[in-house]
Write a structure and sequence with these properties.
By secondary structure, the chain is an alpha+beta fold. The chain has a domain of 91 residues. It is built from four helices and four strands. Helix 2 packs across helix 4. The longest helix has 18 residues. The N and C termini lie far apart (69 Å).
Length: 139
């Protein structure tokens, strides 16, 4: 089957669409993912997703475990300097205890992640929730 060639001058011209109409169809998305605006349960689910990815990507064995801490920015930098891999998230200090409880509750659904000690160490002025493996120190 052959297609009929149509001269360029006879093709239909499209009129521009109103920009406010396009804004309703495609609202602007944030440039980065801001966890401050999300619910605590969703934040915990996203954190565990990243923890599970780090667990799989770094080849964790069944005997290797994770430990959780609530730390300040300096504590986070110290842990990231001493251990690899780490998974951290900045959480509103008013909601960090609820976030930790939600993570520990949803952790039961993650059979591959080994956390023998379900206690979370807490540092005063903590704004970061971080997971690290004490078995994998950077030498």
């Amino acid at each position: 089957m052959r297609f009929k060639k149509v001269p360029l001058s006879s093709r239909k011209k499209h009129t521009p669409v109103n920009s406010s109409y396009l804004a309703k169809l495609w609202p602007k998305k944030p440039k980065f993912y801001n966890m401050q605006n999300e619910s605590i349960a969703l934040q915990a689910k996203v954190f565990l997703y990243h923890l599970n990815n780090a667990n799989n990507e770094n080849g964790f064995r069944a005997k290797e475990s994770w430990k959780f801490s609530q730390v300040s920015e300096q504590g986070k930098a110290d842990i990231e300097h001493d251990f690899f891999p780490t998974v951290s998230v900045q959480v509103d200090p008013k909601k960090i205890h609820d976030f930790a409880a939600s993570v520990l509750l949803q952790l039961k659904e993650q059979p591959k992640i080994n956390v023998p000690d379900l206690n979370v160490s807490i540092q005063t002025g903590s704004e970061y929730f971080i997971a690290f493996s004490p078995d994998r120190m950077i030498r």
